[in-house]
Amino acid sequence: MPSRALSYARRSARETLSGLPRAFWWLWTGTLVNRLGGFVVTFLALYLTTQRGFSAAYAGLVAALYGLGGGLAAVVGGVLADRIGRRRTFLLASLGAGVTTATLGFVTHPVVLAVVVFAVGLTSNASRPAVSAMMVDLLRPEDRLRAYALNYWAINVGFGVSGVVAGFIAGHSYLWLFLGDALMTVLCALVVFARVPETAKPVTRVAGEKGPRTGLRQVWRNRRFMALVGLAFVLGTVLQQAFTTLPVDMTRSGFSASDYGRVLALNGLLIVVLQIPVTRWARKRRPVVMLASGALLLGWGFGLMALIGRAGLPAYVGFYMLAVAVWTLGEVVHEPASMAMAAESSPAEARGRYQGVFALASSASAFAGPVAGGVVLDSFGAVAVWGACAVAGTVTAGGYWMLLRHPKGRPAGTHPRSLDSTEGGAGGPADRRSLPL
Prior knowledge:
Blueprint: H1 2-17, H2 22-36, H3 40-51, H4 56-83, H5 86-104, H6 110-126, H7 128-138, H8 144-170, H9 174-195, H10 216-221, H11 223-240, H12 245-252, H13 257-282, H14 287-303, H15 317-344, H16 351-380, H17 382-404
Helix pairs in contact: 1-13, 2-8, 2-9, 3-4, 4-5, 4-6, 4-7, 4-16, 5-6, 5-7, 5-9, 7-16, 8-13, 8-15, 11-16, 11-17, 13-15, 14-15, 14-17, 16-17
């Protein structure tokens, strides 16, 4: 029996890991190393309040500025990835992130500090559209789902380990926390720049035309793609409640910070354990099935928390863990499929722009999620927050079904008909009429 299980595990690992290009694995390694050194965001609020003595309101404002910088970076980084190339954009953004992160450890004036945090948000997020575009360029359509799943796995492993390491470093010196983050970012950038070739292909131009033919205007006008971005934003807003509303609700229910830590740790653990086997199972499923089912599990997993301590369900940590297990499964199913679908939707000549606009959904949800959750929690209570999450997951699942039911049903890892339809999308005749941004 153990030998059969071992054989199955080996076969699963071989099917998941084999056949991907070497350049992808350099990008994957860069993602892992970058997240292992991603200390600043995790401990920024704690640094501002405990080390610098600023108020919680100021810390919240600075965190919002970081998110604002990240939102702007998503668009700017996408445009640069198409204009000057993926590698140059990645290198410039990463070097900028290293400089601004290191600077953050030395500034003390509240205005200057806020400006530097905005710059950290801008530079550290500007490389992401370039990395996403490089992955799409490098990978065959049938390999993209598992590649994005592996990348998402690396992100979560890096995030989990960095939290432990950062806590140890911060106990000795916050300055070394910032310098360590900066050093890891720069080293990662240099290695990836040296090992990964430029993946952007030359664009065929019509006589007299300058630059790529597809600009941001065409991305915004692609109604089906923007619907995909909107659905990702809604689910991103739901996911944000795990880091903002959930700890407040648990504290009000009498649980400790360590209880919340155990509950949230389960999320990271399950992602690490489930991501690869779930992705192997998902490769033969239609994209609409993966996205809709993931949205339902996400929404209703959060919705289950409306029953804890209410409706006769006792307030036990174990019930929170059950809810986390449900929405984590939804996250594991939904996130790689969503990224793969966005990849299928981006034409080569504007891949950076498309990936940048899609990344904007994450930045916007990181800004809107805490605000919305806090307002609803204070005004209507926790039941309203978790009930709204269930409704949002249901509506999003219906949106995916309406959006993707018409393309020929293919497995989630294959190349379905792109969302770049003739409805103003990239690749249609409308693309040729206007200049890019």
